C-alpha cells in the first residue's frame, strides 16, 4: 500500500482536467458556497482575500467556535489537485499538532 507521500508524488500536475475543473464545468455536481476568479502569482494581495473569504464562509456555515484553514502545497504537502483552493475545517475539536 502506497504512503500518502508516495500517492501525492504520483499526482503531479498534468494537462488532464482536475476535480476542480470538472466541478467548474458542472461535470461533477457540487454545492458551491463561494466562487471567485482564480489567483495568480501577480495577485499576492488577493491571497489575503482568499483567507478573509474563508472566514466569511466559516461564519456563514456556523463555525463560531473556531475553524482551521489548510492549503496543501507541493508533493510533500500532499497537494493532489494543482489548483489554488483552501480547505475550511470545523464543526469538531481540532487537535495539535495537525498530522
UniProtKB/TrEMBL annotation:
Origin superkingdom: Eukaryota
Q: What residues make up the catalytic site?
A: 85
Boundaries of every HIT domain copy:
45-93
**Sequence motif: Histidine triad motif, positions:** 83-87
Do you know which SUPFAM superfamilies this protein is assigned to?
HIT-like
- MF-aspect GO terms: adenylylsulfatase activity
Q: PROSITE patterns, per this entry?
A: HIT_1
Q: What is this protein called?
A: Adenylylsulfatase hint1
Native species: Quercus suber
Amino acid at each position: 500500500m502506497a504512503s500518502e507521500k508516495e500517492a501525492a508524488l504520483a499526482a503531479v500536475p498534468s494537462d488532464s482536467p482536475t476535480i476542480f475543473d470538472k466541478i467548474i464545468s458542472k461535470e461533477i455536481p457540487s454545492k458551491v458556497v463561494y466562487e471567485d476568479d482564480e489567483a495568480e502569482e501577480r495577485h499576492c494581495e488577493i491571497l489575503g482575500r482568499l483567507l478573509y473569504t474563508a472566514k466569511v464562509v466559516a461564519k456563514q456555515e456556523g463555525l463560531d467556535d473556531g475553524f482551521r484553514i489548510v492549503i496543501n502545497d507541493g508533493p510533500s504537502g500532499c497537494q493532489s489537485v494543482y489548483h489554488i483552493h483552501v480547505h475550511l475545517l470545523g464543526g469538531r475539536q481540532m487537535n495539535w499538532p495537525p498530522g
